[in-house]
């Protein structure tokens, strides 16, 4: 219905572009059989024609009498093509790295890609060829923290007066302003300081995210110390610190907030599932002053928000898009949660979405499942699902390129929407071969959740496959695992895979996945199924459980970052109690 309306409107506008002075083309009869059946019934169709320059004088004829009608028509056709043409990204090139790529950025001209890696490297690349142009020099770049692994976690870029600036933040607590063409490096330090009279949290120096805006001379970073800092990268003014937020800051963006009459505000996406809005351009009036957020949205409380992006902080109708640990991409405006898209397949044990990127009317998200999903904004309709060879930790998206940063030594894969940049067939075949494990997961259908249905509790019900409290399920039983959580309810239907049911039950109730095998056996007995030959999908990581006093200390270090005790213990269980760093890596 909509596609037919778009095609008809484009034909009307193209007629005007060909012969703007033809009076026949400057009149549209709304009672015409084609117009009445294909255009009039579609919401917004006549409004679009009015915006181009047609007017309704009360009759059944729309007339265009204004000037520049052909230019207006051309602009409308371009916008329609952008909004309703489904683009396909093809592999372009591969950027080689030695460890996980945690940060990516594309400059405004679609020419330069910036990358940040856990090997402490910061590089800029030519987007179309994948050629490395510059690397942040060793000795002036990021270092190794005293008690944790090294790594650069985020990168941003901005151009002012034709001068490129690269901003990076890492686990060493440094924010580095690098001007590659001038080979100039400026280092800033500030995250990790104790707030008020409270203790200094473990790993609080980690700089997890950065956002930049050359129009406002803004460079803002977020950290595990639950604050955001606005830096003066031009003069010598002191930094301004915002917070304290409810948990570690995992993502930052800038937005236009009409409700608060702010041309630009900062939005922090945090580990407690909340969005915190702050006056990004405001400056502290005294040393050490903390500027609090002016609004908090907690519609996603109950899950960890991992990343955020904004469609355009210069537009009043900007959309905020977040990625979270429950596998749901959420679309917000500056006052409420609008809708969500459940991207992760239900059988995947860790549905975490690590990253999201936005360009114009498209968003891309990916995570542990190794599938990059490109969606239309604001509908969240799926445009493309791209299987990758491993978990994806970072994304960058523009009108021309999509860049996907992978785990370990897999590197970054650059895709292009322009066919002229398409890679050689053998490179595409190689990528498809090494991405085979994710190819089946990419076929999973995405569920759209509108309004309150996109809240985490509603998502858990949707994933469960029916109505709770025994209505709509073939089986329902009380479960008490002796974990102190009391009696829980587990439900499933005939034909459901026991391992899937058990895994979802553990994730929903935040139980250690070490219980999966035990629950699988219970499901098989209760439903009369033969025991499965292999239920290793829920086998926990082999562990050397430390003494209770050491466990308590490790849990305390993680809860200091704003994570509740149940989630901290679950992360340590999944990390095999190897280290606090390994558990935090799963949470943030």
Average of per-residue pLDDT values: 82
Radius of gyration: 26 Å
Q: What percentage of the residues does DSSP assign to strands (E)? A: 25-35%
How many helices? The count is: 12
Roughly how much helix do the residues carry, as a percent range? 10-25%
Major sheet characteristics: 5 strands, mixed
**Alpha-beta classification:** alpha+beta
The best one-word shape is: globular
The tally of strands reads: 35
Q: Strand sequence of the main sheet, in spatial order?
A: 13-14-15-16-20
Runs in which pLDDT lies below 50 for 5 or more consecutive residues are 458-472, 532-543
Distance between the termini: 43 Å
Describe the structure.
The protein contains twelve helices and 35 strands. Helix 1 packs antiparallel against helix 4 (69-84) and helix 11 (565-574) crosses helix 12. The longest helix has 17 residues, at 2-18. By secondary structure, it is α+β, with helices and mostly antiparallel strands. Strand 9 and strand 10 (163-170) form a beta hairpin. Helices cover 21% and strands 32% of the residues. The strands form nine sheets. It has a five-stranded mixed sheet with strand order 13-14-15-16-20, with no helix packed on it.
Fold blueprint:
Layout: H1 2-18, E1 27-29, H2 33-38, H3 45-52, E2 54-56, E3 61-64, H4 69-84, E4 90-95, E5 101-106, E6 112-117, E7 122-126, E8 132-135, E9 152-160, E10 163-170, E11 174-179, E12 184-189, E13 207-213, E14 218-223, E15 228-231, E16 240-242, E17 249-257, E18 262-270, E19 275-278, E20 290-291, E21 295-297, E22 305-310, E23 320-324, E24 328-332, E25 337-342, E26 353-359, E27 362-367, E28 371-376, E29 382-387, E30 392-397, E31 401-406, E32 412-416, H5 425-434, H6 436-439, E33 447-450, H7 456-464, E34 475-479, E35 488-492, H8 498-508, H9 516-526, H10 548-559, H11 565-574, H12 580-587
Parallel strand pairs: 16-20
Antiparallel strand pairs: 1-3, 2-3, 4-32, 5-6, 6-7, 7-8, 9-10, 10-11, 11-12, 13-14, 14-15, 15-16, 17-18, 18-19, 19-21, 22-23, 23-24, 24-25, 25-33, 26-27, 27-28, 28-29, 30-31, 31-32, 34-35
Helix pairs in contact: 1-4, 8-9, 10-11, 11-12
């Amino acid at each position: 219905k909509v596609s037919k309306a778009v095609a008809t409107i484009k034909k009307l506008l193209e007629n005007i572009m060909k012969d703007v002075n033809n009076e026949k083309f400057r009149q549209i009869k709304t009672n015409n059989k084609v117009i009445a059946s294909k255009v009039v019934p579609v919401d917004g169709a006549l409004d679009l024609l009015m915006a181009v320059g047609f007017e309704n004088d009360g009759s059944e004829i729309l007339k265009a009498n204004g000037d520049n009608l052909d230019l207006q028509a051309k602009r409308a056709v371009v916008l329609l093509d952008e909004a309703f043409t489904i683009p396909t990204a093809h592999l372009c090139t591969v950027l080689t790295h030695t460890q996980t790529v945690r940060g990516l950025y594309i400059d405004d001209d679609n020419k330069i890609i910036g990358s940040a890696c856990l090997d402490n490297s910061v590089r800029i690349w030519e987007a179309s060829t994948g050629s490395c142009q510059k690397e942040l020099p060793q000795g002036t770049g990021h270092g190794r923290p005293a008690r944790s692994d090294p790594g650069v976690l985020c990168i941003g870029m901005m151009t002012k007066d034709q001068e490129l600036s690269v901003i990076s933040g890492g686990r060493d607590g440094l924010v580095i302003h690098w001007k590659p063409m001038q080979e100039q490096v400026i280092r800033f330090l500030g995250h990790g300081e104790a707030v008020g009279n409270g203790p200094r949290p473990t790993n609080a120096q980690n700089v997890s995210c950065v956002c930049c805006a050359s129009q406002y001379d803004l460079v803002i970073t977020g950290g595990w110390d639950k604050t955001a800092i606005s830096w003066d990268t031009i003069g010598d003014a002191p930094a301004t610190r915002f917070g304290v937020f409810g948990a570690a800051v995992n993502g930052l963006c800038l937005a236009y907030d009409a409700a608060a009459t702010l041309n630009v505000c900062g939005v922090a996406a945090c580990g407690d599932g909340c969005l915190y809005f702050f006056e990004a351009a405001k400056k502290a009036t005294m040393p050490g002053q903390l500027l609090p957020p002016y609004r908090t949205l907690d519609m996603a409380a109950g899950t960890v928000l991992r990343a955020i992006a904004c469609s355009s902080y210069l537009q009043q109708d900007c959309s905020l898009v977040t990625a979270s640990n429950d596998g749901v991409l959420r679309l917000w405006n500056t006052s409420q949660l609008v809708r969500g898209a459940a991207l992760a397949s239900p059988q995947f044990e860790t549905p975490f979405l690590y990253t999201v990127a936005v360009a114009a009317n498209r968003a891309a998200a990916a995570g542990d499942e190794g599938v990059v999903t490109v969606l239309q904004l604001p509908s969240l309709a799926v445009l493309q699902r791209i299987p990758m060879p491993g978990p994806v930790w970072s994304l960058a998206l523009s009108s021309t390129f999509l860049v996907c940063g992978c785990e370990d030594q897999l590197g970054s894969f650059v895709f292009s929407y322009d066919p002229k940049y398409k890679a050689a067939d053998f490179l595409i075949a190689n990528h498809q071969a090494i991405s085979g494990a994710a190819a089946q997961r990419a076929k999973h259908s995405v569920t759209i959740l509108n309004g309150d249905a996109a809240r985490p509790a509603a998502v858990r019900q949707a994933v469960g496959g029916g109505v709770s409290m025994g209505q709509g399920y073939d089986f329902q039983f009380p479960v008490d695992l002796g974990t102190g959580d009391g009696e829980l309810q587990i439900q499933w239907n005939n034909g459901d895979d026991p391992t899937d049911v058990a895994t979802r039950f553990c994730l929903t109730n935040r139980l250690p996945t070490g219980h999966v095998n035990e629950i699988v056996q219970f499901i098989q007995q209760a439903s009369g199924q033969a025991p499965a030959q292999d239920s290793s999908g829920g086998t926990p990581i082999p562990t050397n459980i430390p003494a209770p006093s050491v466990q308590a200390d490790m849990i305390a270090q993680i809860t200091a970052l704003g994570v509740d005790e149940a989630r901290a213990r679950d992360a340590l269980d999944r990390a095999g109690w190897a280290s606090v760093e390994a558990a935090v890596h799963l949470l943030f």
